[in-house]
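Chain particulars:
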Amino acid sequence: MSERVLLTGITGYIGQHCAAELLRQGFEVVGTIRSRSKADATMAALARAASVERLSFADADLLSDDGWADATQGCSFVVHVASPFVMAEPKDEIELIAPAVEGTKRVVAAAQRAGVKRLVLTSSTFAVVAGKDNGTYGPDSWSDTGAAIGAYAKSKTLAERAAWQAAEGGTMEMVVINPGAVFGPSLGATIDGQSVAMITNMIAGKMPMIPDVAMGMIDVRDVARLHVKALTAAGAAGKRFIAASAEPVDMATVARVLRSEGYSKVPSRRAPSVLLRVMGLFDREARGLGPFLGKKAAFDNRATFELLDWKPTPIEASFKEMAQALVD
């Protein structure tokens, strides 16, 4: 009999890939949804990538206690992916922080009450390096929430810290995956995710210049495989895993690869950082880039290779396949 996994965020970009990988590896998957209207589209998207015979849905919202007891019932594992992700700064940071932090605490508590063996949490490298100077950072590094790091980075850092605190002293094991910028083809017609929007804007000519931003990057399919591996990997419990390239990849490289594939509307000029900082006074999306302009953080990802047997997909292939999927 296959073991049951509760997967939050199943309708999203990363969540759908996690669901497909779980189903391919023989798990029974229960995906949480806020609206039944998304169930059919998600089922159809996943059916193109895996058998959906062992897929079902449960109604549960990160900002409500309703439904979580039923959703976690009979589950051996939980994969908590759901969290809002936008680079544009909200008018009030609590718009991102509340669902991320309170929702994470709610999921951890429900998993503990249900006797779940292990919970795998999707965090971010933003919880590792935001507010830090250039350098190399690993699983023991934490972002500086006292610095001006932006609402998203703050939400991920506070949510992950809340999860570790909530899990401390309990019998349930926890593992955290900290992905960098995620690229690769989407499974569904409903496309979300900041990187998806960015590539869409680049190939459509809606991004006039390239910002001086460099990040550790990873393919979305690698992110999914690492989450599934973390469910049962020996020695993984209680650890954080950096899921990003050791060296940062700059946005100019993304643009160069796309232009080489014939996407002629992709810009080639770099945007002066001082201009983006000035724009940030008036534009919330430009303001969201502010904390990352000119930063070149590297990562110590050795544990991810050693304990989770990571075999990275070449990131250039991720850019190309993502763009082609968007065009298709």
Remarks:
- The radius of gyration is 19 Å.
- The chain has one domain: 4-186+216-246+298-313.
- The domain at 4-186+216-246+298-313 is CATH 3.40.50.720 (Rossmann fold).
